[in-house]
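Moderator note: this is an archived Q&A kept for reference. The question asked for a predicted structure of one protein chain; the sequence and the answer are reproduced below.
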Amino acid sequence: MRGLRVVVVAGAVLLVACTAGEPPPSPEVVAQVDGGEVRYAEFEEYVTMALGEPGASLGSDVLSSLFDQFLEERMLTRLAVDLGLLSAEEAGERFAGRRALDLLLADAARGEEGGGVPTAAEVEAWYEENRERFRRPERVRLRQILVEDRERAERLRAEIARGNDFVTVAERASEDPTVAAATGSQGERSRDELPPAFAEVIFDLEPGGVSEVVEAEYGYHIFLVEERLDAEVLPLAAVRDEVERRLLQEAADRRLAELAAEARRRYDVTVWERNLPFNYRGVYLAKSG
């Protein structure tokens, strides 16, 4: 799993040890996870690591969601300790939540047949069920010359019309300061990936065809269609790696949901919303102190 893992379990049913009317602890304590105190400074550090910057400008709805995710991570870290995957000392280190989740997911995968790696049959079955995901429309392989004035564009187009090679003309033209972009290979493009005015011109060209000068707000284009590619569904051989990655991600998501459910069964959670500096509206609200 890449980067900081953010765990979201919608509609969680949470057990709490909060007694109605119980006074909140000291102001810096904002929650308890199975009796262990959670301080706001820890949440601030979590937000900074998750977003790459402090969350001071975030609204209460976003902060509420992040706070729920933070508490889920704390519960999962505790679960990793109780399962013997992480020591209590390691659980207190920075990035402990990330490491705990890696260890929990790896442990869950080891308990599955084949270590959780999708079989060839599973890959093929998923591909057949999701073939439309890999449908690609008709495309062209495209090059362009883009210059700043029409007169220069027309001269370059005339050179190409006399039989000079498109790329050679473009390379020579690129030495001129009025050329905005020269040999510019545009890769494969479908109609939907081009401005409508360009698509109409480009898709009327046969392979090897060169357009007339096409005016745009930012200059004058000459297009070369190098190849036309028919609409197709990519074969399994071409997308096998992608299918395997999707299956691995789906399996990891299932394991994560099971681990989060196990953590919720094991641990009581209380949120001291009166100590939070934002209007908390997360899934723990009904069970807060």
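Archived answer notes: The longest strand covers residues 219-229.
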